[in-house]
Amino acid sequence: MSGPHAHGAGDGLVVHRHGPLHSLPASAKLLALLGFVLVVVGTPVPGRLAAAGWLPFAAYGVLLLIVVALAQLPPALVARRSLVETPFLLFAALMPFVVPGSRVQLGPLELSEPGLVGGLGVAIKATLGVVAAVVLAATTPARDLLLGLERLRLPAALVAIASFMVRYATVVTGDAARMRVARESRGYTGGRAGHLAAVAAGAGTLFVRSYERGERVALAMASRGYTGRMPRLDELRGGAESMALAGPMAGAGPMAGAAHGVLARRSPRHAAALCAVLPGAAAMVLVAARMMGL
To answer: Which residues sit opposite 103 in a β-bridge?
Structure first.
């Protein structure tokens, strides 16, 4: 294909570098992201602000900083793309004011300690998950992500839907932009009500055009023998060894979470230290093995 729905559609988020993370197969990175997010979400938030239970989250943050450095991503870019979590942060900021419980004095404000703990937990977990997703999007083209999902045995129908969404999102947004330029080039100067009416009419026209394009594409694909799965022009990178490399990264978090649950009752300090060591050690093993060509 040519045009906006060509091979590289949907790759605007990718930061092209030659680092170790860029060369990892998408399926391995997806597994690592899933394992990391599950561990972050499953790590219990301590009941008080001054508690050793926050140390695992500090370890996760250090691990993410190492991954960002290995991906050679500018910190400003990661911070800018992480602004998508702003609604979650606003929700977390309201919790100290609305959650009942014991009060603590923070400057001129008297805040709820359970609200502070809960809000801090929401903010930390949301930030860790969003930054991990930003790193994945910046190091993996959209097409590779779709092939990785297919390799992980995601249902073919879901992969096909995601594939068409990625391919034609730029086509639809391009149509909308051209319609806006055409409207403005004809000297449209309607007020607020007129603008809303024009936007509604344009949205209807855009829907009809997109629906008709979808029908034409479906007929063209059927005439070319489409069977529900897009043909691959290139081989999937990575094999069993790549999955083995992703295993420590995806499995270190669950091991740390389990160790935290077992040891926290006996020695919170030792449990927190174990949670801090395991993910970082797994990341180092993964990157070192990859750089050695294993």
So the answer is: 112
Question: Distance between CA atoms of 11 and 13, rounded to whole angstroms?
Answer: 5
Q: What gap in Å lies between CA 130 and CA 5, rounded to an integer?
A: 27
- DSSP annotation of 5: G
How many whole angstroms separate alpha carbon 20 and alpha carbon 28?
Answer: 13
**Per-residue pLDDT tens over the stretch 28-74:** 899 999 999 999 999 988 877 777 788 899 999 999 999 999 988 99
Q: In the chain, helix, strand, coil percent, each to 5?
A: 75, 5, 25
Residue 2: what pLDDT? 40
pLDDT in tens, 182-234: 887 877 766 666 677 777 888 888 888 888 888 898 899 889 887 777 666 55
Region class of 239: left (phi > 0), else alpha (psi between -120 and 50), else beta: beta
Phi-psi region of 43 (alpha: psi -120 to 50; beta: other; left: phi over 0): beta
Within a 13 Å sphere around the CA of 44, how many CA atoms are in the beta-carbon half? Answer: 16
